[in-house]
Design a protein that fits this description.
Elements: H1 5-41, H2 44-63, H3 69-89
Helix pairs in contact: 1-2, 1-3, 2-3
Length: 95
């Protein structure tokens, strides 16, 4: 337990931040999973929409300093790489 009042206040602040950060972190993981699930099923249109949402959520998490910018860049790079590979292997329609 904290000894001083200032440490007590800091602990309360840390608890509030932890709850807020956990919500954003969970959202980023959920959005990335949605993209991966859509790509594994082969649905390019759904994956494209989910990809935009995932990138947006990752960028917002970086702005709020919840995840490091390199962590977000790595995640975006990996899902873009998978998405581009999926697009390349998909048969072109009406060409």
């Amino acid at each position: 337990m904290p000894v001083t009042k200032s440490v007590e206040r800091e602990m309360r602040t840390a608890d509030r931040r932890q709850v807020r950060n956990k919500a954003v972190d969970t959202l980023t993981k959920t959005e990335v999973k949605k993209v991966n699930k859509a790509m594994s099923s082969g649905d390019i249109e759904t994956a494209k929409g989910n990809l935009a949402a995932a990138i947006s959520v990752l960028d917002k998490a970086v702005e709020k300093k919840i995840i490091h910018k390199n962590n977000a860049a790595r995640k975006k790079s990996r899902i873009m790489k998978k998405f581009n590979a999926l697009k390349a292997t998909a048969k072109p329609e009406n060409k």
